């Protein structure tokens, strides 16, 4: 272990909001290093509510997944249900439950946490909470809102690792949820 | 499989930049669904250069990791080296090599791709490319710039899975890199 550069915590001197959208806000934080108290540097941070996602496992072992058009990459992706914790949600677990029902039409008898993560600690302040849902019951079609359009796809669990390797599953936070659920293999893949 | 909501691709009618920072820009894209050609909806997207990270494995099997203060969460994290592909970098592999040397002081005899991912396909357009570096040689101290301050920590590979489970490793893209390298375990962790 090197002893070069023991990292110290910076202090925010002042902040200004650069933009606000329905899903996050962007701020510049002028921050100060304790060894250089006279100098501020700007750092750019996205603030958003906590995010959630959930691995829904049907009784036959298949994963209930969702295909949807994603505007960041401009393509249809294959993901697990997820979204953000709304103001009406009592907490992340209830938000995951709501997203499961809205995006897939499946209700769950059990929803349990499997882990949480920082989507990007350099530029995002929020956390993503992952869950596993079991004892699934199909209640009806997805309840898509005006701009959402989800297609439900049932995928055997054994197909998930090759779909991550091939890039068919391409969302980092979906990969993290499966990693929390299944754990890492012992050696190089 | 349900046939409800076969997701269709939207078309961008027009875009406006809301903010530009040194590390990404934020735009609102007014987009149109093919079934509702008269109506636009705004979607918010962050554009940034490609990102890279690299798992550096020393000859004794330990992983060369980096502790640094992260302004998004306002805490010191434990990560692998990484950053963005600069305009001077010929490509992601060279960017990963540069970040390895800058952040840790280690050079590598070999650096190979292990996988890539969309950090967040809903709100980000870019990709993160992960690599593994071997045949490491310590060249000197990290070459930190004015605001960077990294501490190099050597961590045995077997400690990585429990550090992900405990949250000591908390960056989604670091977890994804290890997942690309090691693969997922066969069953629930």
CATH superfamily of the largest domain in chain A: Nucleoside Triphosphate Pyrophosphohydrolase
Overall pLDDT confidence of chain A: 93
What CATH calls the topology of the largest domain in chain A is Nucleoside Triphosphate Pyrophosphohydrolase
Q: What is the name of the CATH architecture of the largest domain in chain A?
A: Alpha-Beta Complex
CATH class of the largest domain in chain A: Alpha Beta
Which oligomerization state do the chains in this entry correspond to? homodimer
Number of strands of chain A: 10
Helix content of chain A: 10-25%
Structural class of chain A: alpha+beta
Please provide a brief summary of the model.
Chain A is α+β, with helices and mostly antiparallel strands and 189 residues long. Chain A is built from three helices and ten strands, in the order E-E-E-E-E-E-E-H-E-E-E-H-H.
């Amino acid at each position: 272990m090197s002893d070069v550069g023991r990292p110290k915590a910076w202090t925010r001197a002042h902040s200004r909001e650069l933009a606000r959208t329905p899903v996050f806000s962007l701020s510049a934080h002028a921050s100060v290093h304790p060894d250089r108290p006279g100098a501020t540097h700007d750092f750019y941070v996205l603030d958003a509510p906590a995010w959630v996602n959930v691995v829904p496992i049907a009784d036959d072992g298949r994963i209930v997944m969702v295909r949807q058009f994603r505007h960041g990459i401009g393509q249809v992706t294959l993901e697990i249900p997820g979204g953000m914790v709304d103001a009406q949600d009592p907490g992340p677990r209830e938000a995951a439950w709501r997203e499961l029902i809205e995006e897939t039409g499946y209700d769950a008898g059990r929803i349990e946490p499997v882990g949480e993560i920082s989507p990007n600690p350099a530029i995002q302040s929020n956390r993503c909470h992952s869950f596993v849902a079991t004892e699934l019951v199909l209640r009806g079609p997805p309840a898509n809102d005006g701009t959402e359009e989800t297609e439900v796809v049932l995928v055997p669990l054994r197909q998930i690792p090759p779909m991550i390797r091939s890039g068919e599953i391409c969302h980092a936070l979906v990969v993290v949820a499966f990693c929390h659920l299944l754990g890492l293999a012992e050696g190089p893949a």
